[in-house]
Amino acid sequence: MKSKLRIATYNVNGIRSSLSKGLVDWMLEEDIDVLCVQEIKANIDQIPHFFFEEAGYKTYWYSAERKGYSGVAIISKQKPDKVEYGMGMELYDREGRFIRADFGDLSIVSVYHPSGSSGDERLAFKMEWLEAFTSYINELKKIRPNLIICGDFNICHQAIDIHDPIRNAKVSGFLPEERQWLTEFIDSGFRDSFRMLHPEPHQYTWWSYRANARPKNLGWRIDYIMHANHLDDTLIHSAIASDAVHSDHCPVICDYNV
Fold it and tell me: What are 127-133's contacts with CB under 8 Å, separation 24+?
């Protein structure tokens, strides 16, 4: 018998900071079943797990080697059948960017794609990562076809997804080659769950701390829940929770009937 599964993705920009701002209370209020987290910026021994455990959640963390940097997690009411840490690629896994949890025949991924905004070297790294990620997912979906990929992609897909597409046309996160990769990734068999139900503009998930950007809604939509397109009929709700203010990002929430 199918039941509703509420999944959220959230770049928390520091798990300890977001906890101090009421992250667990928000999860309980929204009745989140699975939370995919990015940028935990903490080692395992620095994370106060008990806040989640007291609220009835199991937690699975994948930290970067570098302290205070990157890192992903999956936080779930239900214990997964299996958790996979990383993609088996040392160059990328040392940055703690990928974790997968399997629940029956459903697989949920939390991924943190690199930013290319700090210079040419990191942009090149990002583009290489995106190619490697595509290859990895193409192989994964052969054995785990019911995939839901959640995370900070660090890419706005279309002009509708960014507050100033003209001025940002040459800025990483909205470069033609990044946007083309995202188009090709979606075309390979995935669906942008939010856009599937919400075609309207001015819907963003990240705002700069500068220039009072968030109150003015001068944002970027770079956080996504992507599902394998054969799961289209299971999506019953999607939303951007812009009133959640534990981070410079906000969560994306989807309900699936699975």
Answer: 127/177, 127/178, 127/181, 129/92, 129/97, 130/178, 130/181, 132/87, 132/89, 132/92, 133/87, 133/98
The whole-angstrom separation of Cα 114 and Cα 246 is: 21
Tens digit of each residue's pLDDT (9 = 90 or more) over 186-236: 999 999 999 999 999 999 999 999 999 999 999 999 999 999 999 999 999
> Does residue 48 sit in helix, strand or coil?
coil
Residue 22 backbone dihedrals phi, psi, to 5 degrees: 95, 30
Q: Which residue shows structure tokens 């009133």?
A: 243
Under DSSP, the state recorded for 9 is E
CA dist., res. 18 & res. 234, Å (int): 30
> Rounded CA gap, 236 and 257, in Å?
7
Which domains does the chain show, CATH number per domain?
4-257 (3.60.10.10)
54-99: pLDDT as tens digits: 999 999 999 999 999 999 999 999 999 999 999 999 999 999 999 9
pTM for the full predicted model: 0.97
Give the neighbor-by-neighbor strand order of the sheet with 223-228. 82-85, 98-103, 106-112, 146-152, 223-228, 190-192
117 CB neighbour count, 10 Å cutoff: 12
Q: Indicate which residues carry an active-site annotation.
A: 152
